[in-house]
Each structure stands twice: as structure tokens, then as C-alpha cells.
Design goal:
Radius of gyration: 17 Å
Helix content: 25-40%
Strand content: 15-25%
Number of domains: 1
CATH superfamily: Acetylglutamate kinase-like
Distance between the termini: 23 Å
Number of helices: 9
Number of strands: 11
Shape: globular
Length: about 240
């Protein structure tokens, strides 16, 4: 029996860059697409939110002189570019999918509604939810939490380059301890940077667990969805 029937997967834009640091690494993109197809074919319904940091990040742009609101709007468009790239990669390997955008921009994508996204997933399509929340200031972590709640996902999966939640940055602190499970309250108390506070609060208040895992190791997505203890579960 599958542990999860419907999930919201959050991918960072930076992860799509792979070794290139910026832009889109085609090999990384293909690996993500193949992992998603494998999970979708097992019967799990999938919604995906991708960040845009590999192309443009609004907050860092504002520090360089961009207007914050326009910078965030540029960041939203960056998430749409990444979403279209993932859609193309999925289509090329025979996986049905549909791109939804938080602001109207047909024919680039279909305007997002909860009901259309759920219908797509129930029909076996991967729903790619682009454009963040459609509002400036809010991060794609917050967009992921919001969409995960809206589509009634069993959990939000945060695919990163780190294999879970640690007491400190394991790349800087070799002695950092990894949690197998940790409550949202303890995340708050320890000041851990799992997600921004808005996203964390949304998940906690709406009983949406978050699973943090290493998406860059091929096959990990299926393992973590099957319930293998390879990441960290953040629970209410």
C-alpha cells in the first residue's frame, strides 16, 4: 500500500542549474522528469512547484537596485520558464502533464484553480503549478505550502541538495545532527531554516507535514514517497 496518494513536490530553481550554477542543466532536468514519471506511473498524484532562483531571484534583485515588486514579478516569470522546461522534459519521455499559472498568460499555461489542478492529477497528469502565489513578497516555499493545502496533498515534499533537516548546516558544521522526525514547534524553537516562517506556519496550521530529502540522488523521490526513512519528516 502506498504511503502517499497525492503529494506536492517543491523543487528549487537552483537545483535545476546543476553544475552550471545558473540556467538549466539538461541532464539534471531529465533526471527529475524520469523520477517524476516513475512515481506518477505507480499511481501517486503529483503537483509540482519550482522556484526560479537559477534565473532571477526578486529579493537579491532588489539589493541591486530593482524595485522589489517588479523584481518579484520577474522571479515569478522565472518560475514559469522552469515550469515550461520541466513540462517539455516530461512530455519528451511520454508523461502527461499540464502547466497552470497563478496569473493569466494563456497559451503559456492554463490559469490555476484548485479544481482544475485536482482534475488533471486524477486524470494521471502531473500538475505543474507555476508563477508562485501570483503575488509579490511571498516566496515559492509559501506558494508550495499554499498549493499543497489547496490540492489536499497528503504531504509536501521539499527536494533539496541536503538529505534532511540538521541542527546546523552540515556543509559548514560536520558535527551537525540529522533529524529523522522533528515537530514544527521544535523547528520554531531551534530557529531551523527548513522554509520561511510564513510557509512553515501555513503547513503547521493546516496539518500538512513536510518531508525534506535529497532530490539529486536518482531514485530518492520514489523511495521517500514509499516511506523509506531517507529524509526528515516535519510534523504537527
Amino acid at each position: 500500500m502506498k504511503k502517499y496518494s497525492r503529494i506536492l513536490l517543491k523543487l528549487s530553481g537552483e537545483s535545476l542549474a546543476g553544475d552550471k550554477e545558473q540556467g538549466i542543466d539538461e541532464k539534471q532536468l531529465e533526471e527529475y522528469a524520469r523520477q517524476l514519471k516513475e512515481v506518477a506511473q505507480s499511481g501517486v498524484e503529483i503537483g509540482v512547484v519550482i522556484g526560479g532562483g537559477n534565473i532571477f531571484r526578486g529579493l537579491s534583485g532588489s539589493k541591486k537596485g530593482f524595485d522589489r515588486i517588479k523584481g518579484d514579478q520577474m522571479g515569478m516569470l522565472a518560475t514559469v520558464i522552469n515550469s515550461l522546461a520541466l513540462s517539455s522534459a516530461l512530455t519528451s519521455i511520454g508523461q502527461n502533464n499540464r502547466v497552470f499559472t497563478s496569473i493569466r498568460m494563456e497559451p503559456v499555461g492554463e490559469l490555476y484553480t484548485k479544481w482544475k489542478a485536482i482534475e488533471a492529477m486524477q486524470n494521471g497528469e502531473i500538475a505543474i503549478l507555476a508563477g508562485g502565489t501570483g503575488n509579490p513578497i511571498f516566496t515559492t516555499d509559501t506558494a508550495s505550502a499554499l498549493r499543497g493545502i489547496e490540492i489536499e496533498a497528503d504531504a509536501m515534499f521539499k527536494g533539496t541538495r541536503v538529505d534532511g533537516v540538521y541542527t546546523a548546516d552540515p556543509e559548514k558544521e560536520p558535527s551537525a545532527f540529522k533529524f529523522d522526525r522533528i515537530s514544527f514547534d521544535e523547528v520554531y524553537a531551534r530557529g531551523l531554516k527548513v522554509m520561511d516562517l510564513t510557509a512553515t506556519t501555513l503547513c503547521k496550521d493546516n496539518n500538512l507535514p513536510v518531508v525534506v530529502f535529497d532530490m539529486d540522488t536518482y531514485g530518492n523521490l520514489k523511495k521517500v514517497i514509499d516511506g523509506e526513512p531517507i529524509g526528515t519528516v516535519v510534523y504537527v
